[in-house]
Amino acid sequence: MGIFMGKIKTHFLVGLVFICLGIISVIIQKINTDIEIIALFANAFGTLSWAVVFTVIFSLIFSRLEKWKYITLIFSLIFCLGIEFLQLTNFSAAATKRYPALHYLLGASFDITDLPWYVVGIFIPWQILAKNDRGIK
């Protein structure tokens, strides 16, 4: 049980750091995004934080499986990139119009510059969590 709690602590700390990035992103966007570089960083922080949150969630869900590292990586990539590509359809806009809070999950519009940030935001916590794995079964 102690090993599992250590794993949850690691997940919590990794998630918390990147959730803070997401909060910074929202604050920056509310204050001023007229300056292009600030808007770019705000968008990057937001994208990174979502990718990390979902990677941590998937890692917790699959942590008891033998191949959890690879399953987590695959699910995180499919989910995050899938949400971004879903923005190419009308579904995202229609859903956020009806339920405005979904904007935070589905985003507003497709942005190709988000794709590398998702990959980075998945890979960094995945590496940290995989290195801190203590063989929980």
Walk me through the structure.
Helices cover 77% and strands 0% of the residues. With 137 residues, it is mostly helical. The protein is globular, with a radius of gyration of 16 Å. The mean pLDDT is 81. The N and C termini lie close together (11 Å).
What's this, in brief?
The chain is mainly α and 137 residues long. It has helices at 2-31, 36-62, 68-86, 91-98, 103-106, 114-131.
Distance between the termini: 11 Å
Please mark out the parts with pLDDT under 50 across 5 or more consecutive residues, or reply none. none
Largest sheet: none
Number of helices: 6
Instruction: Give the beta-strand count.
Output: 0
**What does the average pLDDT come to?**
81
Tell me the fraction of residues in β-strands, as a range: under 5%
Give the oligomeric state: single chain
Query: What does the radius of gyration come to?
Result: 16 Å
Can you give keywords for this protein?
77% helix, 6 helices, 137 residues, mainly alpha
